[in-house]
Specification:
Layout: H1 2-30, H2 45-52, H3 61-64, H4 69-81, H5 92-102, H6 107-115, H7 122-126, H8 129-132, E1 157-158, E2 167-168, E3 213-216, E4 221-224, E5 234-235, E6 238-239, H9 248-252, H10 265-268, H11 342-345
Antiparallel strand pairs: 1-2, 3-4, 5-6
Helix pairs in contact: 1-4
């Protein structure tokens, strides 16, 4: 009986300590200006400072980060037990919760992302029978599809083979996005709050958002788009003209070309990374030199409506530019928008433009 009372006393003391810590943490935060009291915990100082120098400086910490009692108790427990890491990292579940917070201010961008392929879930990517039967799930897949996942591929999907059937081990992540907002956006990066311009945006304005930054899974940190390189891509031995748009550096982190395989004639001749190899989408042919963002919105890859930005409703061939088979996915597409050339359609020679005097085509195929 005496031992039971002692254990009860310990339990009550622990509960009181937790409640006091929870109340203290909450009071300390709300008694300060936008979380500056959080800097009293040394591991939080750089993040609070970064937030106050970023485009989100007018927001409070809880506008983006969950402040549930469970989260606060977890932080209090870490301090009471002395288990404080030198560098704190958000858990994968914290990242997904924060993604939902982004929708509060960025409704249009969130809707575009949600409707596009970059919102693909762990179930869609890692339990896809068609893809897994060709290539088993591997840790390297997480570099782009699961940058924030806490664990290895074996902790996410079983089995790692081409036979299946495959199941998602972390059921809580089955319908979570593999590429959340923070995959390409560095929320705490230095920058100024965006505001609606009083007049038309100048071409001399900043070429990309201050928040653009790729999250590297291995380094567990963001790298600004301006500091990333755009690869030189080749078509056989010929260098492809590359767009100088630095925003593309983010795209190339996942949509990267490959060097020719060893012991192949291409490798023996010293050809560089080949356009169209790996998951590369570098434009060639009639669209060589265009930026990815000339056609693609960063949040939604649907580029069909962008054709009208440069083309008439119908082309010189009387084809509707928005209904042409421009698919990248099908090798049979005659108008693969990334690599289509004039001779793909005009095997007998490119026709001359319409004669200004007659209004008729001067030459035919």
């Amino acid at each position: 009986m005496k031992g039971m009372l002692q254990w009860m006393g310990i339990g009550v003391a622990a509960a009181c300590a937790a409640s006091a810590g929870l109340f203290g943490a909450t009071s300390m935060y709300f008694s300060s200006h936008q979380g500056t009291a959080c800097t009293s915990c040394h591991e939080m100082a750089q993040f609070v400072t970064g937030a106050h120098d970023s485009a989100h400086r007018n927001l409070k910490c809880e506008d983006c980060h969950q402040e549930s009692p469970r989260t606060k108790l977890r932080h209090v427990r870490a301090h009471l037990t002395g288990q404080i890491p030198e560098m704190i990292r958000m858990r994968d579940t914290d990242v997904f919760q924060m993604t939902e917070s982004c929708r509060g201010c960025h409704q249009h961008e969130y809707a575009a992302w949600k409707a596009g392929p970059h919102s693909a879930t762990y179930r869609q990517i890692f339990a896809d029978p068609q893809e897994n039967s060709r290539r088993p799930p591997a840790d390297d897949c997480l570099r782009c599809h699961g940058m924030h996942f806490d664990g290895a591929i074996r902790d996410l999907v079983q089995p790692q083979d081409v036979r299946g059937p495959w199941r998602i081990v972390r059921r809580d992540l089955a319908d979570a996005p593999t590429m959340p907002c923070s995959s390409c956006h560095w929320i705490h990066r230095d920058g100024t709050p965006q505001s609606k311009p009083a007049s038309r945006i100048s071409v001399a304005a900043s070429p990309f958002s201050d928040s653009l930054g790729f999250y590297d899974r291995r380094e567990q940190m963001h790298f600004a788009a301006a500091g990333l390189s755009i690869p030189q891509v080749y078509e056989r031995e010929t260098a492809v003209r590359m767009s100088p748009d630095q925003r593309q550096a983010i795209c190339y982190q996942c949509h990267a070309p490959r060097l020719p395989d060893a012991l192949t004639p291409a490798a023996a001749r010293g050809w560089g990374a080949q356009a169209g190899s790996g998951d590369d989408r570098t434009p060639m042919g009639v669209h060589e030199g265009l930026s990815c963002f000339a056609c693609h919105n960063g949040h939604n890859e649907n580029a069909r409506a962008s054709c009208k930005s440069c083309h008439q409703k119908t082309s010189e061939c009387r084809l509707d530019v928005e209904s042409m088979d421009t698919s990248y996915a099908r090798a049979s597409s005659r108008h693969n928008i990334h690599w289509v050339t004039c001779v793909d359609c005009h095997a007998k020679g490119v026709p001359q433009p319409k004669s200004p005097s007659s209004g008729r085509r001067a030459a035919a195929d």
